[in-house]
Amino acid sequence: MNMTHTRLARRAVIFLLALLLVGINLNRTAVGQRNRTPPRRATPVAAAPPARPRLVLLIVVDQFRYDYLERYDDLFSGGLQRLLRDGANWTNANYDHMPTYTAPGHATLMTGTWPAETGIVGNEWYDRDTGKRVTSVSDTMAKTLGGDAQEAGASPRRLLASTLGDELRLTTNDRAKVIGISIKDRAAILPAGRHASAAYWFSGQNGHMISSDYYFNQLPAWVTAFNDARPADKFFGARWDRLLSDTREYERRVGPDAPPWENIGAVKDTNTFPHIITGGASAPGKDFYGALDYTPYSNDLLVAFSEQAIAQEQLGQDADTDLLSVSFSANDYVGHRFGPYSQEAMDITLRVDRQIGTLLDYVDAHVGLQNTLIVFTADHGVAPIPEHATALGLTGGRIAGKDVLTAVRNATKAHYARPNEAKDTTTDYVLDTFLNGNIYFNTVALQRDGVDRAELERVACAGALTVPGVERCFTRTQLESGGVDAVADPVARRVLHGFNQRRSGEVILVQEPFKYFTEGTAFIAATHGTPYSYDTHVPVLFMGRGLLPGRYAQPATPADIAPTLATILRVQPPSNATGRVLLEALSGK
What count of other Cβ atoms lies within 10 Å of the Cβ of residue 22? Predict the structure, then answer.
C-alpha cells in the first residue's frame, strides 16, 4: 500500500509541475503578445498620374467626309492608315449644329461647343452694329504681317469662347505654345484661340505664309526665312496627275474623269487629269497662288511649314504641353470644284493620307509619337453635286437666294401694304442679305411702322416656304422662347445650336436634302452647310498614350474633342464647353 501511495504522490507532483510549466509558457506568450508592437499596415501609395503628352497635334482635313475613311481605307498607306490601325475611331461622329461651314466647324473643335456659344455662326454674317457683312476673323484693328498691303487684317476677336489652347496657356502661365496653321485664315485662327502664341495662313496675293499683329509686332525670323525661299513658287507649272498608276481603280470607285455634272465654271483649269498648275499666268503671281489652293501641292506647303514650326518653336521639347493645329484646306477647294464623287477628290484623299504620314514621321523623329497625342477630324462634309444627285434620283437642285428674298418680300407686301397707297412702305422691312440660310429684318423700319417682329417672322416663313426646295423655316421668336423640340427633332436641335441671338437672322431656312442654297453670283459645283449626314458625319480619331485603340460606335460629336483633351491633360475645359468626355476609350495609362 505504501508503494502505491508513493507512486500516486509522484504522479501528482509530476502533473502539478507540468501544469506549472504550461502556465508559465502561456503567461510568457501572453506577455510577449501584449508587449509586441503590432505589425504596421502598408500605407497605400497613390498611383502617380500619367505623364502629360508633350505635344497635342490636331490634324483637320477640310471637307473630309467620314465615309472617305471607309471607301478608301484599303488604299491608304500613310498617316490615315496608321491612325485607323493604332487610334480610337468614333464611327458615328456628327456635328450637332448648322450651318456646317469651315469657320463654325473649326471654332467648335477646340472650344468644345457649337455656334450658339462660340458666336461663329458662319464663314460670314450680317453685323447689326456696322450694317455690313463681316467674316468670322475679319478685324479692322489688326494689321497683316508678311502679306500684301491690300490684305485685310484678321484675328480671333469675334470668337466668344476660350479654346483648349487658351486653357493650356492659362494653366502654364503662358509657357505652353499654341500655334495654328492653315491655308485659310479662319482655319488657322479659330482652333488656336484668342490667347494663342501664333496663327499662320497663306497669302493668295504674294505666296507667303502670313500672320497678324494681334499675335506679335513682326513675323518670327524663321517665318521670314521660309518666305524668302519662295517655296510656293516651285509648284508653278507643276503637273497634277493621278497618284495611282492604274487609272481603272479611279473609274471603279468614282466613275469617269469628266461626267456631265462636273461643271467647273469659268476658271482657268480643266475638269480632267492632268491639271497643269499656272492659273493661266506666265509666272508666279496672284492668279497662280489662287490656283495653287485647288491642288494637293498647297497641302505639301503646309507640311513643310508645320515641320519648320515644330523645329524652330521647339514644340514638344519640355514638360509643358504644346498644341499645334494643322488644317489642310486643299481638299475643300478640290471638293467644291469637282464634287465628292470625282477622281480629283479621290486622288487628293489618297495624297493627304501620305502627307499626314510625312508629318507624323517628322513628329516621331523630333518629339516622339509616344510623347504626342494626335486628333484627326474634319470641319464638315459635303453633298453630291446637285446635278449628280438628280441623275441618281435623289432630287438634287439649286435654290437661288434671290428667289427666296423675292418670295418673302412679296408675302410681306401682301400682308402689310396699305390699299390704294402709291408707295410700297414694306420694301425696306427685309434686308437684301441671304446668308447661311438666314434672312435679316430692318428693325429700324419695323419700329418706324409699328410692325410686330414676331408677326413678320411668321409672314416671312410662309413666303419662303412657297419656294420649291425650301423644307423648313424657323423663327427667332421660336428659337429664343424654347419653341422647338431639341430632343425629338434633330434638325431643329442643329438649327438651335447654330443660332446666336446677336449674330443670327430673324428667319432661318432649311432646304430639302441634296439641294443647295446659292448665295451671290459665283458658281460652286458642290457645297455643304446643311444639318444632313453628308455634311455632319466626319471622322473623330484619337491616337496616343492613354487611349484604347479600336472602333467605337457610340454617338459622338467634334465638340467632344476639347473636353476629352482637357481631361487627359488635366486642365480646365474651355469656358463654354458642352461636349462630353469620350470615356469609353480612356485607359488612364
Answer: 10
Choosing from 100, 102, 377, 530, the catalytic residue is: 102
CB 127 within 8 A of CB 140: no
Cell of 401: 437666294
Q: Where are the beta strands (DSSP E) in 162-311?
A: 178-182, 198-202, 209-212, 238-240, 275-277
pLDDT at 47: 59
List phi, psi (to 5°) of 103. -65, -50
User: 11 exposed, middle or buried (CB, 10 Å; 0-12, 13-18, 19+)?
Assistant: exposed
Nine cell digits for residue 229: 525661299
pTM for this entry = 0.91
Q: What pLDDT, on a 0 to 100 scale, did the predictor assign at position 390?
A: 97
Q: What residues contact residue 409 under an 8 Å CB cut-off, 6+ apart?
A: 426, 427, 429, 430, 463
pLDDT for res 43: 53
H/E stretch holding 352: helix 343-366
Place of cell 490656283: 291
Q: Where do the DSSP E strands lie in 396-534?
A: 397-400, 430-435, 438-441, 470-475, 507-511, 515-518
Can you tell me the distance from the alpha carbon of 326 to that of 394, in angstroms, rounded to the nearest whole number?
Answer: 35
247 given a catalytic annotation: no
Residue-level pLDDT at 425: 87
Separation of alpha carbons 102 and 187, rounded Å = 7
444 vs 558: CA distance, rounded Å: 39
The C-alpha R_g of the chain, in whole angstroms, comes to 33
Distance (Å) of CA 101 to CA 68, 106, 187, 228: 18, 9, 11, 33
Query: What pLDDT band is residue 30 in, cutting at 50, 70 and 90?
Result: very low
**pLDDT number for residue 48:** 64
For residue 237, pLDDT over 70 is answered with yes
3-class secondary-structure state, position 114 = coil
pLDDT at 44: 54
